[in-house]
Amino acid sequence: MSEENIADRIERLVAEEHDLRGREQRDSGDASALFSERERLRAVQAELDRCWDLLRRRRAKHDVDADAE
Fold it and tell me: CA-CA-CA-CA torsion for 38, 24, 41, 34, nearest 10 degrees?
């Protein structure tokens, strides 16, 4: 996965996270909807963490490789 693909994935996940947070506020009276939204929000946040970590590692490797030249 390229840096652009990772960055695109991060953008999509952030948009989904914002959508889920908005739905969470609107559905505050519906316990089953809240449960599934919170489950998905946790999954999105975990995926975001993985993507950011991967992007940071790739950029650090790129910086190290550039310094070695």
Answer: 20
